[in-house]
Write a structure and sequence with these properties.
5 helices
């Protein structure tokens, strides 16, 4: 079981890193993201959103006795994998969230997030609250 979990996590991590590095390479190649440190961090944060979305989709799958037999894995292995992916999800969320926050601070946008004047800013405020 530990060997199967280890193999599964290695494959998952490899695919996640590929899913991060491919968009990151595209963002780094774009001149827009090479103008300032804030925009470079924005490119990093946006690239982190790709594996983050993938992780969120997997973590949302309920872990039950129905899942393990279909994957030919034991129930404890599936639950351990689910927990490990949950921690990786938190890591990708931190990279994405703090990168976005850094970018917003670097352009001075956080000072102008007035929800009363512009209700669209509520999305950014709630994102910061979710990060914290």
């Amino acid at each position: 079981p530990a060997d199967a979990l280890s193999r599964l996590l290695r494959v998952w991590s490899l695919l996640s890193w590929l899913w991060f590095l491919l968009p990151l390479a595209c963002f780094i190649a774009d001149p827009f993201y090479r103008v300032s440190a804030g925009k470079m961090v924005l490119g990093l944060a946006l690239a982190a959103s790709y594996p983050l979305s993938w992780h969120l989709a997997l973590v949302a799958v309920p872990v039950s006795d129905l899942v393990a037999p279909r994957l030919s894995l034991s129930d404890p292995t599936v639950k351990s994998f689910h927990k490990a992916v949950g921690w990786r999800t938190a890591g990708w969320a931190a990279v994405h969230g703090f990168g976005e926050l850094f970018y917003l601070c670097s352009i001075g946008l956080l000072e102008h997030l007035n929800v009363v004047k512009n209700p669209d800013n509520l999305m950014y405020v709630l994102g910061v609250v979710s990060l914290v």
